[in-house]
Amino acid sequence: VHQSKLDFFCKLGYGKQDICKVLENLGQEALEDDVLKELIRMGSKPQALESQAQPSPLKLVARGSCSALPESKWLGEGESDSPDYLRPIVIDGSNVAMSHGNKEVFSCWGIQLAVDWFRERGHTYIKVFVPLWRKEPPRQDSPIADQHILEELEKQSILVYTPSRKVKGKRVVCYDDRYIVKVAYEKDGVIVSNDHYRDLQNENPEWKWFIEQRLLMYSFVSNRFMPPDDPLGRHGPTLNNFLSKKPVLPEPKWQPCPYGKKCTYGNKCKYYHPERPHQAQLSVADELRAKIKVPLSLGREEEQHNRSP
């Protein structure tokens, strides 16, 4: 019995001395649970846990060595996904909510879907701008769905209400689009909206460039927030690079020449020729001239050599 319990706790990683002490105190007929509790009370740890708790020794690298440690990560593998390398997100709440509600209902659930999508990516700075009058009870001409979501997002310091008030029964609303563009421009972030803000582009040339380069469009597909994989078009950056402060540049891909060996452009050809990777790319005419010049020059040297004696 003693040997079986000793083998059992040795497999768990405990030392033989600690096990023998516990068995002497509790007796050979003690239950395994009691022995385990006593081991834990004594502060004994399995060898695997002790090895994990100890700091790993520092690895010395020879001076001048160009080899990098295996733990080091290239930019784009680990660092680009950290929150410090993700751009701030500024969401046009009215645009997103009306888009999710088919332009008929102000659907607050659409705002929540967009916020959750960026949260899952790791973005820490997310702001949603909504006019203050959306706090009022819904009316027939402006229905609102899931209005309690606005209160929850406001408590989380994500939702920001743009000011509005009533003067002699008329509502005076501040232009919330200017808040959205201004905050995104100052934070060097991304605007989430399907609006093009053409009036604000004409106001400020810097805002014009920023809106053209940092506007992220989207779609809702069955209650799923889906931004495009190519926000700036087919030849623009990917979505990951678009949302990162330090984008990862793709490796250049050479397109093979459609004419192949029949190409007559030579070194002026902008396409890739696999049949001549290391030699100078000369046109056919230049190659013929080079072949003709070689025998002519050899013949002139022979004539001069014969005349010299």
Automatic annotation (TrEMBL):
Domain C3H1-type: 251-276
InterPro entries assigned: Rege-1_UBA-like, RNase_Zc3h12_NYN, ZC3H12/N4BP1_RNase_Reg, Znf_CCCH
Keywords: Endonuclease, Hydrolase, Magnesium, Metal-binding, Nuclease, Zinc, Zinc-finger
Gene Ontology CC terms: cytoplasmic ribonucleoprotein granule; nucleus
Listed cofactors: Mg(2+)
GO molecular function, one term: RNA endonuclease activity
Domain of life: Eukaryota
CDD domains associated with the record: PIN_Zc3h12-like
Pfam families with a match to the protein in the record: RNase_Zc3h12a, UBA_6
Zinc finger residue ranges, C3H1-type: 251-276
Family: Belongs to the ZC3H12 family.
UniProt name for this protein: ZC12D ribonuclease
Organism: Fregetta grallaria (White-bellied storm-petrel)
Gene: Zc3h12d
